[in-house]
Amino acid sequence: MKAKVHVTLKNGVLDPQGKAIGNALTGLGFAGVSGVRQGKYIEIELDERDAAKARATVEKMCKTLLANTVIENYRIDLDA
Amino acid sequence: MKSAIVVFPGTNRERDMALALRRATGRDPAIVWHSGEALPKVDLIVLPGGFAHGDYLRCGAMAAHSPIMAEVKKRADRGVTVLAVCNGFQAACEAGMLPGVLMPNVCLQFVCRDVHLRVERSVRPFTGRYNAGTVIRVPVAHHDGNYYADKETLDRLEGEGRVIFRYSAPDGTLGDAHNPNGSARHIAGVVNAKGNVLGMMPHPEDLVDPVMGGTDGLGLFQGLAESLAA
Fold it and tell me: A70 and B100: CB-CB below 8 Å?
């Protein structure tokens, strides 16, 4: 089973990198960019076949290491 | 005072730190590798600067889970003094030893220059040698020194007198122009609730001898030596 984890900054947390990307896009002539937020995407191959168990494990991975929940949210998608 | 400096793969400021500690205490600190080596019984544990584990994932995130960190946390809980500088501060936050997190500098650049710090509180074991309100000059060298915590946490830190250093002008004035990284409320250094763990982004260890261009950082190490004298 594959877990796909998206780690994003919480709303309200300043994202200088996202801002710089937004400025660059505008500078390149892409009109109408009103905001950019950037984050991380992590794929994890798991031996676990049970979706509920896999989700619980990845949840724990997120809380322990993959995301810093002071500033980041995470979303887990599972592919069988 | 006996001290130990923890070294992770990618740490690079342990020698500067050792020099400062030797200068203040007359003794060499133990240099302890992050895995497989026992942490000796010491009065002060230092998490130094560098790029532990390549700063992968987030600065300090990997170091926070290094084998030695469980023991560092345990000692800190028991009251052993911990000084966490720069990358060490990032690791201490990631390990939950200090509140908040260090985010990328607002300017998105690596900032390497001298800054001024206003000593907010004169407290043992860290800043007893400085008077509150004193401004010292020390270097910073980091890309991720932008201190962030939510409003409630920041209010609590201020209310409990746990903000120890703030970035300021040479005369102590606060303002965005004197804040090298965008840190919330110009915070450069904070302590934990017990007051025995200090995290700070600037490098006091790099201004402890006239040949370095100044000695403003020496007071921190002399204060530690005085407070933690065996």
Answer: yes
Q: Assign 3-class secondary structure to chain A.
A: CEEEEEEEECCCCCCHHHHHHHHHHHHCCCCCCCCCCCEEEEEEECCCCCHHHHHHHHHHHHHHHHCCCCCEEEEEEEEC
pLDDT in tens, A32-61: 999 999 999 999 999 999 999 999 999 999
pLDDT attached to residue B82 = 98
Q: Please report which helix (H) or strand (E) contains residue B91, including its range.
A: helix B87-94
A41 contact B CB<8A: no
Amino acid at B20: A
CA distance A65 to chain B (A): 7
* Residue B107 near chain A (CB below 8 Å): yes
Instruction: Give Cα B49 distance to the centre of its chain.
Output: 8
Distance (Å, whole) CA A71 – CA B8:
25
A68 shares contact with chain B (CB less than 8 Å): yes
Which fold is adopted by the domain A2-79?
Mth169; Chain: A , (3.30.1280)
Alpha-carbon gap, residue B200 to B203, rounded angstroms: 8
ipTM score assigned to the predicted complex: 0.87
Q: Which chain B residue has its CA at the smallest distance from A68's CA? A: B94
- As a whole number of angstroms, the distance between CA B62 and CA B72 comes to 15
Q: Is B205 a catalytic residue?
A: yes
Determine whether domain B3-227 maps to CATH 3.40.50.880. Answer: yes
Residue B227's H or E segment, with its range, is helix B218-227
Measured distance CA(B209)–CA(B20) in Å, rounded: 9
Closest residue in chain B to residue A39, using alpha carbons only? B57
CA B164/CA B127 separation, integer angstroms: 8
Q: How many of the other CB atoms lie within 10 Å of CB of B200?
A: 26
Q: Which of B59, B86, B116, B142 is catalytic?
A: B86
